[in-house]
Design goal:
This is Phosphatidate cytidylyltransferase. This protein is an all-alpha fold. The protein has helices at residues 3-16, 22-40. α1 (3-16) packs antiparallel against α2. The protein is elongated.
Length: 41
């Protein structure tokens, strides 16, 4: 499993958690994972 895939999975899990603050953190991690995906290709 690639690093960017792991980052995207963690971001998606944090994004979906109903705990305050994890929505924004999950979105930022998803953006980071997307950037890693684009840099990897």
């Amino acid at each position: 499993m690639n690093t960017h895939t792991k980052v995207l999975l963690v971001g998606a899990v944090l994004f979906a958690l109903p705990i305050p603050g994890t929505f924004v953190l999950g979105a930022l991690i998803l953006l980071t994972g997307t950037a890693l995906y684009w840099l990897d290709n």
